[in-house]
Structures are given as C-alpha cells and as structure tokens.
Design brief:
Blueprint lengths: L2 H14 L4 H4 L11 H54 L4 H53 L7
Helix pairs in contact: 3-4
Length: about 150
C-alpha cells in the first residue's frame, strides 16, 4: 500500500470517529542504541579531555603569575628592539645597547612620574573632595526628575 492511500484512509477514519488500523496498535518507544565500541571510545575521549583540561588549569593556576611576567618581559624586549638594532648598526655592542636603552626607558619613566605624578595626585584629591557634592546634585536631580525623596546627606 502506498503512502498516499494510507494517509487518506487515516483521514477518512478520523472524520468518521474510527481509529485507523495503523493507529490502533500501540507504538514502541523509540530507543537510541550505541555501538559498544563507539560508546566506549566516546567515554574515553570525554575523560581524556576532562583530565587534560584539569591539568592545564592546574598548570595555569600554578604558573600564571610567572607567565604574566614572562609576557611583559617579551613585550618590553619587542618594544626595545628597534632602538637596540639601531645602536648595533652604528657600532655599539648589543648588550651595551640593550643596557643603554633600558636605562633610557627607566629614566623616561621616572621623569614621567615626576612630572605628572603630582598632577595626578592633585586631581585625585579634588575628585575625592567633590564626590559628596556630586552625590547631592545627582540626588537632587533624581528627586526633581522622578519625584523621589532621596536624602544625599
């Protein structure tokens, strides 16, 4: 029997209130069957991936700070390389050129902190002093705008 006549019979039976013969028999539940070997391989791979993740996580937790310092040193060496290469091309030894560039970076950092450090400290102190006034203005704005009764004190 083809599929078209089966569906037509089922539709006719449902209109008349009868149960079609293929619907009368209870259906078996659909089960999923795995091949034992494939299932075993999947379980082993999940276990291996989980153990690998735990080992990598432990290594990262144990050496994360050290790796961060290594990455910063690598970044500094990449940043210094053009100046060191320029000095090496002009007759300086690479070790001496690296030391001079590193001392120059240190001196520039100290000068930067000396010049802008007091400015940063002054502005930070002014910001801290202005926080209560800022909160009072925000509370006043919210009270006016939304009809609330925030007390900024």
């Amino acid at each position: 029997m083809d599929e078209g006549s089966t569906t037509a019979a089922a539709q006719a039976a449902s209109r008349s209130g009868e149960v079609a013969e293929d619907q009368a028999a209870p259906r078996r539940p659909l089960t999923v069957q795995f091949e034992p070997r494939a299932f075993r391989n999947a379980v082993v791979w999940v276990f291996v991936i989980f153990v690998g993740y735990r080992i990598a996580s432990w290594i990262w937790d144990s050496t994360g700070g050290f790796i961060f310092v290594l990455l910063l040193a690598w970044l500094l060496s990449i940043a210094m390389e053009p100046a060191v290469a320029w000095l090496a091309n002009h007759g300086w030894r690479r070790g001496l050129g690296t030391g001079v560039v590193l001392l120059g970076i240190f001196a520039a950092s100290v000068a930067f902190v000396a010049i802008f450090g007091s400015l940063f400290a002054t502005q930070t102190a002014e910001l801290v002093k202005s926080v209560p006034d800022l909160l009072a203005r925000v509370a006043g704005w919210a009270n006016e705008r939304f009809g609330t009764t925030f007390d900024p004190t």
